[in-house]
Specification:
alpha/beta; seven-stranded mixed beta sheet; 10 strands
Length: 204
């Protein structure tokens, strides 16, 4: 599903795993998120599907966020355009959610810059034949506790930071929270600020 929104302002992009327990247990914390003043766009992570699969859309809408799973939005400001695409987590099929990755990405306009939100870095494989300039992912926690990052790298192509994969750049955030043990070692939490700039070509 694609739609067009004529605004190009500050956006908050959430790459999943907002929920690591049932929403009823963290309601007070969720209410704090309702105070965010800027638009928030969200794609599901595997933990979100595990704990809130059937109620995820309701929970996200209650926060005032936009769920971007398997959708494309186009933002515009003047003559500038930006496409924002989202994939539900790669475990979606186990929760009865269909992902049409190829069809979704094929609908992108190759002449318009595009960003893909995908929880797991390994979804970079879908950008090989798609018009994606930047993929934003999470999932890895940067390994969370060193040296477990080496194990994560057996399943994910990138652990953290900015990389280039073919024509696509990918940034993998270490995230803010933790999983299992409430502890991190040599994998600090982060909230990332990304400034997009136009690639100006100067002709001589």
């Amino acid at each position: 599903m694609a739609s067009k929104i004529c605004r190009l302002l500050l956006k908050i992009l959430h790459t999943g795993d907002l929920f690591d327990t049932f929403p009823s247990k963290i309601r007070a914390h969720l209410d704090i998120l309702k105070k965010i003043k800027h638009p928030v766009y969200f794609v599901s992570g595997n933990h979100d599907l595990l704990f809130t699969c059937k109620a995820l859309s309701h929970e996200i809408e209650a926060l005032g966020f936009t769920r971007l799973d398997n959708r494309v939005l186009t933002f515009c400001r003047g003559d500038d355009r930006l496409q924002l695409a989202g994939l539900s987590d790669s475990f979606s099929k186990y929760f009865g959610i269909k992902r049409h990755e190829k069809e979704l990405l094929a609908n992108l306009n190759p002449n318009v810059p595009s960003i893909l939100l995908a929880h797991q870095p390994k979804d970079i494989r879908f950008t090989k034949n798609a018009s994606i300039d930047l993929q934003l992912s999470g999932h890895t926690h940067g390994g969370q506790i060193y040296p477990f990052g080496y194990i994560v790298r057996l399943f994910q192509p990138y652990l953290q930071g900015l990389h280039r994969d073919g024509k696509t750049q990918i940034f993998v955030t270490t995230g803010y929270g933790s999983w299992g043990l409430n502890f991190r070692f040599r994998a600090p939490s982060e909230i990332v600020i990304i400034r997009l700039t136009k690639d100006e070509h100067v002709e001589h």
